[in-house]
Amino acid sequence: MLVPVVNMQGEKVGEVMLRPEVFEGAVNVPLMHQALVRQLSNARLGTHKTKTRGENNRSKAKWYRQKGTGRARHGSRNAPIFVGGGVAHGPMPRSYEKKMPKKMRQAALRSALSAKAAAQQVVVVDELQLNAPKTKEIVGALRRMSAYEGRTLVVLPSSNPAVELSVRNLAQAKTLRAQYLNVRDLLNFDTLVLPLASLEAIHGLLGAGAEE
User: How many domains are there within the chain?
Assistant: First the structure.
């Protein structure tokens, strides 16, 4: 798939080939959903905790006498039926980790990238460079590239403090290193902005031979 390459002024400066094995594959929705659920689950800390009746710090003495009150017999105010008592079957710390083979994770990324390319939501720019952090300049550049409609994901090949700090002020845009490309961000943002160096990094990560 041939797509135009633009500069930060929005002018076409050439064309580049998107590798078909990365950007023209079949869109597998169930696989992308599985990868998304895995990513969201692995992000959970699982530190939730409630106290059982044995951990609750109330009096251990018998609440009232066994007989003669006309009430039910109780031996402790820590029972779950009382206010301030323990919690029965409450959440305990645990891991929500889900595993997924590397080939399946890569296939899910290819599927998400193919969906973006098919919807013409991939913008390739020759390079993104700013002399200093300036949000106004990056907004102007994105608008000239027609990449500021909706939510925008800017994929950088490596650390670029000026661009990262400029984009950080925008509620509808985000920067991401190419090596950390993931299904959640690909599905969460409308437009994908790829400098040529980032495109080469993605081809290297997901292209032919990347599974070995």
Answer: 2
- Residue at a domain's end among 90, 121, 152: 90
pTM: predicted TM-score of the whole model, two decimal places: 0.85
With a CB cutoff of 8 Å and minimum separation 6, the contacts of 80 are 53, 86, 87, 88
C-beta of residue 158 within 8 angstroms of C-beta of residue 137: no
Torsion region of 46: left, alpha or beta (phi above 0 gives left; psi -120 to 50 gives alpha): left
Contact 113, 27 (CB under 8 A): no
Q: Strand, coil or helix: what is 176? A: strand
> Following CA atoms 9, 13, 19, 20 in sequence, which dihedral angle do they give, to the nearest 10 degrees?
90
Please check whether residues 125 and 186 belong to one and the same domain.
yes
Identify each DSSP E strand in 24-137 by its residue range. 122-125
Q: What are the structure tokens assigned to 109, written together?
A: 């990324």
**Domain final residue, candidates 62, 90, 118:** 90
* Segment 111-162, tens digit of pLDDT: 999 999 999 999 999 999 999 999 999 999 999 998 888 899 999 999 999 9
Residue ranges making up the domain that contains 182:
2-45+98-206
| Same-domain status, 8 and 68 | no
* Cα gap 107→101, rounded to integer Å: 10
- The residue type at 150: G
Please indicate, yes or no, whether residues 27 and 73 belong to a single structural domain of this protein: no
